[in-house]
Write a structure and sequence with these properties.
Length: 142
């Protein structure tokens, strides 16, 4: 399980730290393995709403806030490599709105990004429901 490289970066956030890289790496690799795929490398970039809004506008031509943007860096059928950008502002707000623990909501957002890379969508009600079920399934195993 040690072949996976999870890199953590923190951009433009003053009061945020993340010390769960090893546990997160093991968990994400186990999710990929259970889905029949290999997680080779992932950069998780924690940032502010403003930072992620700029990325959303520049790369996706979307002018709205979001909690996560996932950029796959691998070809189909190859081990997963990706960059995942996560707005800590959105995660904090959503955790409060949903009355969830911040760490639980952050884990949900991270596994959500990985599930996208594993082929799960969330464009329709049915896809959203399936995505939420997989998130809950893997959160229970964390």
């Amino acid at each position: 399980m040690s072949d996976t490289s999870i890199q953590i970066f923190i951009e433009d956030l003053q009061n945020f730290s993340f010390d769960q890289r090893n546990a997160m790496s093991i968990w994400l690799q186990s999710v990929a393995k259970e889905e029949g795929q290999v997680l080779k490398s992932m950069s998780i970039i924690f940032c502010s709403d403003a930072y992620l809004l700029d990325i959303n506008k520049e790369y996706l031509q979307h002018d709205y806030y979001t909690d996560i943007i996932t950029f796959p860096l691998h070809d189909d059928g190859q081990p997963i490599e990706a960059d995942i950008f996560i707005s800590i502002d959105r995660v904090t707000e959503n955790a409060a709105k949903l009355q969830q623990d911040f760490d639980q909501e952050l884990s949900r957002v991270i596994v959500h990004g990985l599930l996208h890379l594993l082929g799960y969508g969330d464009a329709t009600y049915t896809e959203k429901k399936a995505m939420r079920q997989r998130e809950d399934f893997y959160l229970a195993k964390k």
